[in-house]
Structure prediction request, 1363 residues.
Amino acid sequence: MNSNLLLLAIPGTALAAFLLPLLLQRFGRVAATLAAAAVIATCLALVLQLAPTIFAGETQLARLPWLPAYGLDLSLRMDGLGLLFSLLICGIGLLVVLYAFYYLPGSDRMGRFYSILLLFMAAMLGVVLSENLLLLLVFWEITSLSSFLLVAYSHDKYESRIGARMALAVTGGGGLALLAGILLLGHIAGSYELSVILAAGDQIRAHALYAPTLILILLGVFTKSAQFPFHFWLPNAMSAPTPVSAYLHSATMVKAGVFLLARLYPALGGTDLWFWLVSGTGAVTLVYSAATALFRHDIKGLLAYSTISHLGLITLLFGLDTPLSIVAGVFHIINHAIFKASLFMAAGVIDHECGTRDMRRVNGMFKRMPITASLAIIAASSMAGVPLLNGFLSKEMFFAETVAHPQFEAIDWLLPLVATIAGMLAVAYSLRFVHDVFFNGEPINLPREPHEPPRWMRAPIELLVLLCLLVGVFPEWTVAPLLDVAAAATLQTPLPAFELALWHGFNRPLMMSLLALVGGIFIYALRCPLFAWQAQLPPVRPRTAFERIYRLFVAAARRVVAALDNGSLQRYNALLFSFILVLGGWAFFSGPAATLRLPVQPAGEAAYIALFALVLGSMGGTLLYRKRLLAVILVGVVGLIVALIFVRLSAPDLALTQLAVETGTIILMLLVLYYLPAREAPRSSASRLARDLLLAIFAGGGMMLITLQMLAAPLETISGFYLRESVPGGGGTNVVNVILVDFRGFDTLGEITVLAMVALASHALLDRLILTAPRRDSDGRPWSSEAHPLFLSMLMRPLLPLTLTVSVYIFLRGHNLPGGGFVAGLITSVALVVQYLANGNAFAQRRIPSNSAGLLSLGLLLAVGVGMASGLFGRPFLTTAHGHVSLPLIGEFELASAMIFDLGVYVVVVTVVVTVLSGLGRLSERAHRHNQEAVS
Amino acid sequence: MEVVLSIAIGVLTACGVFLILRSRTFPALLGLTLLSYAVNLFLFASGRLRIDAPPLIRAGASYADPLPQALVLTAIVIGFGMTAYLAILALRALAESGADHVDAHKDP
Amino acid sequence: MNAHAPILPILIPMAAALLQMASGRVSFQRAVGLLASALLVFVTGWLTLLADDGLLRVYALGDWPAPFGIVLVVDRLAAAMTLLTAILGFLVLLYASAGFDETGIHFHPLFQFQLLGLLGAFLTGDLFNLFVFFEIMLLASYVLLAHGGGLARTRAGISYVVLNLVGSALFLIALGLIYGTLGTLNLADVARALTVPGHDHALARLAFALLITVFALKAGLLPLSFWLPHTYGAAGAPVAALFAIMTKVGIVAILRVQAIALEPVMPDLLDNWLTTLALATVAFAALGALAATRLQALVAWLVLLSWRGWSCCRPAPCW
Prediction:
């Protein structure tokens, strides 16, 4: 098979199949387990397929374009480092699947667990195989998210949820820093492809942005790899099921940080800043966590701090920045993954068998589970660095590197001292683990009687411990080739000469190892006074501190949000107006303005009188808005003046529409007024009034000025076309009407859709609503008891046929003279509503069609239907046709298909106005009936 | 003529804005009505002002710009629909709470 | 048939709504609605495939040529947005058909009208027609917001409606300014008119600033974003889910105006104002999500994060 495809298939298979266990779990947990194992085994097989070429020294690259415009391609890379991690991920993953099958309770159907685990594995493979750094980042975030789900797997437990949230917060925050760092790195190198970046090391190190880039990337690395001071999430994540801890927290996820350190070493390493930051952090973490581990009574807590400490060791090695230290770092990654995974699994067995992990109670296990105990003791010895085991080899290399480091010539004793102290502490906590758990008398008060675990639950541990031994005794024959290619890929230069051997002669590293062993035993012997000393220290509780900071953060966010957003519409409106004034003012004055010429047309006396009335009406309505009836009347007057303006300025259609709409609006407002309580509105404070007045004056002044400016500006419009085409193309002389039903009929269709929705809304919102009508008006006068005065009713009935005739006339002439569907519809509906007002509900109910939704549908159908008819002739939607027709009385006129459209408009308008107004009127009817029922 | 219309639009806008900033539904309704008058006049004015030139095709006449008239007509009708909806909503709020204050909705 | 494809995303929901209004039976309305939405997914998918050739498809309504009649314009962005809307609409409708639609009346036709408004707003190439589709979209959203009843929804509705009515007034002012200075309303023609010397630049800039304000209000740009979490948090779950795409209408509208008018007329509006405010909006949304006490309110805040997309595709502001 093509090696490109093979490479893409490695994370691809896992991503594509990660839901398989979930889908198969209804066939039982065995099926789910087998599915998970099969997926991982497939990935492992694919990795092994590629392995020979990697061992031959090649680097495999594969690329699929994805978002090339953003520099983001699906490009993958496999070299020695990627191979090493892929093997770890798939190999240990396979063991964890087997282990988890026994570890999780039989009631768990496992599908969810394995699916998240596979997703995590896929993301991990993606991280270690990415060639594109943005792609790496995407996978990096998926590891954070999926590990959140895994840590919170027992989501009914408070501990799990808190631990998972903390892990996500810390690693997610680090991920953000990493994102910023990688964006900077890509900016510096000009590409996100690793091949380019790794080759551009000198350019990157010389760049002005090198320091922020390095710090941001290291933040991502240190949070992920739990380096001090971000280490606290890892012990809290121990609330995860033990298979998860064995996988994520020893072998894979926490290694993603050091992986990135190794990956970017050629690009970022080799500077003083790198040396001090990386090795400093590593050294502090190494010693601090080793010391803390000693005092943990929880087995997994001890292992967690030991993991942090070992990660610190690896970080320190990368920080030491010599070729050999890098080799040692890569070597320790392998060794630590092997022995720590087996230790976590052993801890899980003990937990599983004893029901607790407290080392003060779990004692004397050697007698009860001798095989598990032997395995754990070997693994713990490897952790302590005992010879003949793999941990010893990398620790020796570490000690050798601390001796005579070039950066420390002046104080050449310091680094070896730190290393030796850390070694002593490691021996001490390993010893504590071994002695306390497996010996040290009899168990105390265990919930159940422990014995050896099921045969196959132990198998993964056995395999891993066997590896510890094999690597420890025969390094040259086992691990050496893998280490060679991995270290070479990390360094991107030829490897330094080194020898993997048990015996290097009697030298200083060996002295340090012996010292560490003896000192560790000594420290462990002093444990009782040490524990007593530790007990009286002020307690350090990173979790409560974290929670407190988290709560403070939330409280601060609430305060900020509440301060900005008080939920008040007035404020929103004021903000909107201010925003417009500021942005509009800026836009207007930020560039060249046209020279203003004064408008030419003189205004007659009538214009001034109209202006005077309009100003009086609107100011009056504004100032007297508390006298609501008066305000409505004044606003009505203003509306009439607006209609007059339209008449004067050659817009008869607008004037007619404005008049009819005005009537409807006033009736509407009066109806609303009838129900609204006449409570006195609170007076606004003086500052509020000042603010509102200022906004109003600026808005009004601004509108005035831009109107003047606009009227003075030159204009060339498209409307000549409409005037030319109206008769030949649209078949009507009233250009406005032809525009409405023909040229821009689509707008009109939208508009009657809006109207139809208003009718639906009035149905939907007023349905079953009961509003008690007040008995008195706002001035305390009782409403007239004579609801429908006789004279009005007698006067209005004969008017109905008359107004209907008028509206038919207005409708028919609309295409040629002012009028049309809108105006006719509004006239009809106002006539109907007046009947309703005059004659009461009972009279009107019989005459108003009840199925208004159906009528609306009909009206819209007329408009849409005639528009779609044009489709039959292969023309676009709403294309019209027209011809001459003569009718008696009205005479000859042009009948256009657009008139059917206009008829639809008419039907919709009538239905809507009548539905809305009568719907409002019926509210009181309902309330009335409701009251009567209540009385009877 | 132009100055007169500009003043009218300015005054209507100012009154509308002021009323919209009051705290009750009813003045807001009035304010929106006034503001929509101003906006309609403004949109209408974008075709410039012509006297005695209605856009009805006849021999030898000059015409006002018909397009803004058609747009304003649409805007008037849509505005009416929106006003009606706001009125309905105000009444519903009243029926449900017995209050006609425009805000006081906070997260429960 | 390909020639008529652009109008179908508008005709399908319209026809569905008409059928649904003609019969009040919910089971019938559901069937029609789901069928129409599924058809819509198919049609918009087809449109997206058609648009993938990178050509601009113009559909002249009423067969009137472009600057005079109204045109629908389909490009990759518009087609992709209609597809997204259709898919979302279908899923939301499926969810709502589990019973939410029966907590009030007329849910189904209003839902179709809401889709109609959204799709029209994505497709139209005419500014006034955009206004009309905005109004359709908004009115449908006003009523859907109140669907299911309850005082919280009604009150959130009043804020939302009043604010958007002011927004509509602004939109009309902007349109008046554009027509009054450039003499046209077709987007492509506006771009052409902007290159013709002699028009009033100050007024044109003001017009686009107002237009951007309206779109920013719809999309919830700080400081015009406060209504959004309240409204989306109060709406019924399916309604809020559909609303999530409404903010995108605002952003897509800004993108449209940006390409034709802002880049040539006032690029600093984009780079300084919009990008800065977009970043502020993202920060504010994050704070709001942190402060939220209810899950739906939290999600409502997260809707504001869609401004992050904006800040991603713009260069950094030059402060």
The first strand of chain C starts at residue 57 and ends at 60.
